[in-house]
């Protein structure tokens, strides 16, 4: 009688072990050390692997002192140009520019897809377009921010351009950026979506200061576009539905 009981007990243990294994969390990605060199290496490796998640050290400010990307057309970029689907998994992180050299923070190619989670990009300065981000592919911000970036051309926070380009902001901020035109966001023949996000305090020499839109589509869903100068969206070549001033 003891033998069947042992078999039943073993079978039960196997079922519990199997069920427990199914509940185990996925293996966590090791955080990238809080240095410029480590971040650049991690992004290069993710590009080479065809994409991946780059987990940042919580609370770290990654300071870029030099450009690490340049397509030969649009000027230097702090991070390597994003050519694959890459997520920067943050936790109160900032990626910023420091020093005399001017460069934007990030550029996304037509094959690239950049997602920022709890990450702020700041201090970028482009001689052309897109002080924070120049986007030809896909950009997604979740709980993130573009602030205090500058472009001598268009799109201080981000310049998103081309039929393949899409930018989506969820619970994110675009604030205190500057440009010749469109201090906050420029969406040129692209798709732009803002959900529960703000475009605030951006400034341009010529209007609009907040969102510049030409062709493509723009959707504002519980989004606030306020206190941008000289205007929020007025003067945009194409109207921005739901934006006034």
The figure for the number of domains is: 1
Overall structural class, as computed from helix and strand content, comes to mainly beta
Which percent range describes the beta-strand content?
Answer: 35-45%
Give the integer mean of the pLDDT values: 91
Following the backbone from N to C, one meets helices and strands in this order, namely HHEEEEEEEEEEEEEEEEEEEEEEE
Biggest β-sheet, characterized? 12 strands, parallel
State the helical fraction. Answer: 10-25%
Spatial separation of the terminal alpha carbons: 85 Å
> Quaternary status of these chains?
single chain
Low-confidence stretches are 1-27
What is the C-alpha radius of gyration, as a whole number of Å? 22 Å
Count every beta strand, where a strand is a DSSP E run of 2 or more residues.
23
Please state the overall shape, judged from the principal axes of the Cα atoms: globular
How many DSSP helices? 2
């Amino acid at each position: 009688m003891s033998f069947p009981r042992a078999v039943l007990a073993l079978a039960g243990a196997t079922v519990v072990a199997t069920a427990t294994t199914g509940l185990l969390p996925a293996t966590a990605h090791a955080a990238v050390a809080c240095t410029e060199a480590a971040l650049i290496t991690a992004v290069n490796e993710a590009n080479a692997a065809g994409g991946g998640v780059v987990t940042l050290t919580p609370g770290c400010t990654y300071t870029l002192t030099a450009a690490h990307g340049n397509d030969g057309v649009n000027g230097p970029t702090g991070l390597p140009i994003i050519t694959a689907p890459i997520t920067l998994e943050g936790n109160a992180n900032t990626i910023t520019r420091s020093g005399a050299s001017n460069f934007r923070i990030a550029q996304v190619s037509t094959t690239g897809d950049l997602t920022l989670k709890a990450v702020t990009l700041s201090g970028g300065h482009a001689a052309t377009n897109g002080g924070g981000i120049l986007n030809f592919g896909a950009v997604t911000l979740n709980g993130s921010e573009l602030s205090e970036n500058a472009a001598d051309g268009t799109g201080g926070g981000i310049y998103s351009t081309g039929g393949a380009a899409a930018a989506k902001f969820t619970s994110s901020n675009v604030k205190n950026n500057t440009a010749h035109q469109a201090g906050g966001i420029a969406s040129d023949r692209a798709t732009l979506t803002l959900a529960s996000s703000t475009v605030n305090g951006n400034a341009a020499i010529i209007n609009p200061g907040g969102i510049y839109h030409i062709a493509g589509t723009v959707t504002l869903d519980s989004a606030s576009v306020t206190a941008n100068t000289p205007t929020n969206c007025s003067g945009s070549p194409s109207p921005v539905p739901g934006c006034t001033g």
